[in-house]
Amino acid sequence: LPPRLGSGFVGPLLPSLYSFVSVQDLKTHQRLPCCSHLSWSSNAYQAWVQEAGPNGNPLPREQLLLLGTLTDLSGDLEQECRNGSLYVRDNTGILSCEVIDLDLSWLGHLFLFPSWSYLPPARWNSSEEGHLELWDAPVPVFPLTISPAPLMPIPVLYPESASRLLSLRNKLRGVQRNLAGNLVQLSSLVNSKEKAYFILSLGSSHSAVTRVSIIVQAPAQLVWHKALRPGTAYVLTELRVSKIRGRRHRVWMTSPSSRLLLLKPECVQELEPELEGPLLEADPKPLTMPSNSQDKKDPKGLVRDSRLLSYSGAVTGVLNEPAGLYELDGQLGLCLAYQQFRGLRRVMRPGVCLELQDVHLLQSVGGGTRRPVLAPCLRGAVLLQRFSRQKPGTHSSRQAYGASLYEQLVWERQLGLPLYLWATKALEELACKLCPHVLRHHQFLQHSSPGSPSLGLQLLAPTLDLLAPPRSPIRNPHNEILEEPHHCPLQKYTRLQTPSSFPTLATLKEEGQRKAWASFDPEALLPLPEASHLPSCQLNRRLAWSWLCLLPSAFCPPQVRGMPAGLRGLPFFVILTATTLV
Questions:
Q1: Can you give the residue ranges of every domain in the chain?
Q2: Class of domain 154-270
Q3: For 120-155, what is each residue's pLDDT tens digit?
């Protein structure tokens, strides 16, 4: 290796205590999470561990050197398999990875990675693979080729002119333009049956209202999603105008030759377009989308509007990983189920810092949830700010299965957030009651299909059919991201009165005892005039046993279900032993 690789670390050469590790070695032999920080001393690592918190379980340090090519190609080079993911490749294999601040010039080059962590699959005998988290900028083995500044300024359109051009007939047919502006909005990466894409919006620095949307769907450009940062100024080259199927609205779209550049004022020149000509017909007024069925079923319920905002915080707890439920800053809930977050799920653990753009805030949702909940739709973006210093927690079986079933609740059953939160809690309660003695967790939480219905959904079907009757999918990603006024499943909601619960016998016993002691009155069992003449031994004998009959209506929610049909409606008998009074 060239000696310059070691400069800036420990000396002119690489540290002798470190050994090289290949991708195949990590995948085959490294069964425990680990991290490697080439430039750190032992004291620096201990300080890093302390920042993980007193209750954290920090990643152990290994003295390993990792070399590889950073790429967005998942398969053979000829196949051009690109879906927006990043990988580290060497001669022995390939590993998926995540990067905080991606520089697009890194792609396709050989690097030494000075600071990284490796997370093996949660279940070693599964078909899943581990992944890398690249903490710091990689060090190139060979000098990177720096793109020279353009000889002539790049002619660009700014958002106001680009937006007005979209309304003119025949002005841009077959013509490509360069657009420049500040990134004011970034959608999530959408994977549809046809193709993957995301949508970004550029705005003007002197106008907060004017913005223009651009669709990015070329496979080689999907990786831009990891490099874009809201608030930064960019230039997108060689854009064309396109129409979205089913909409009159025209949008800008990248071409296969488009490039993403940082905006440097000295390298661009504003283009003065000809803005005269016949206008296109305005888009018809958007149709009112069907409201969530929860709003219809509860005429007394107050239909609330969620708030769109941006938020930065740290994950402090994992509530239900397959369902996409987490805790933020110890006081907020985070639901990622309304985005396609499979790639993000693997890095989500306590200590991860996130930046949430255009996220919905829902308060007082009910359904067993008391804290406010943040939930991004397809219009918003979840951006990584810092990886976690902690090892992934050991998940129980019920926390390792069910991801496809929870996705089915959102994308096929079209559940609103309050009802979705209740359904996830109910499935957890049922799994505690039935698994693993009656069923295995993967059997109970399996994806429901016409030939193989899910038992979990069958048990919840009566309630779900009442509160959210099955209907054809109405979620349109393009409309959800582009439409003004904004409409999505998270925009309006009604507080859900918990329809039912499935408590364990231990929980039921504890609640019954609490209610019984709260209503216990010794004088009702033994009148005071009679008790005043009895010795203590006779008093204790008379008060030794007492009982209280509790009906299902005494519990909250009022209907306690999940029992065999023949037992429903029967009272619960809680036998209490009275304590010695004297």
A1: 3-140, 154-270, 293-494, 505-577
A2: mainly beta
A3: 987 765 667 899 999 999 999 998 887 777 778 999
Helix (H, G, I), strand (E, B) or coil at 480: helix
Residue 564's nearest CA partner among 468, 454, 433 is 433
User: What one-character DSSP code corresponds to residue 368?
Assistant: T
Q: How many CB atoms lie within 10 A of CB 431?
A: 22
In the predicted model, what is the mean pLDDT of residues 325-342?
94
Q: Are strands 93-99 and 131-134 parallel, antiparallel or unpaired?
A: parallel
187: left (phi over 0), alpha (psi -120 to 50) or beta: beta
CA distance 67 to 142: 12
Amino acid found at 356: L
Smallest CA-to-CA distance from 241 within 141, 150, 164, 149 is with: 164
Distances (CA, A) of 231 to 307, 374, 575: 21, 22, 64
Under a CB-based contact definition with an 8 Å cutoff, are residues 74 and 66 in contact?
no
Compute how many other C-beta atoms are within 10 angstroms of the C-beta atom of residue 296: 14
User: For residue 302, what are its two tokens?
Assistant: 């107050």
- Give the CATH H-level superfamily of domain 293-494: Nucleic acid-binding proteins (2.40.50.140)
CA distance 261 to 235: 5
Q: Output the pTM of the full model.
A: 0.82
Count of beta carbons in the 10 Å neighbourhood of residue 298: 15
- How many Cβ atoms are within 10 Å of 517's Cβ, its own excluded? 13
Question: With contact defined as beta carbons under 8 Å apart, do 39 and 7 qualify?
Answer: no
Higher-pLDDT residue of 570 and 161 is 161
What SS3 string covers 329-352? Answer: CCCEEEECCCCCCHHHHCCCCCCC
- Domain 154-270 and domain 293-494 have a common topology: yes
**Higher per-residue confidence, 267 vs 560:** 267
**Mean of pLDDT over the chain:** 81
pLDDT tens digits, residue range 415-432?
999 999 999 999 988 888
* pLDDT greater than 70 at residue 497: yes
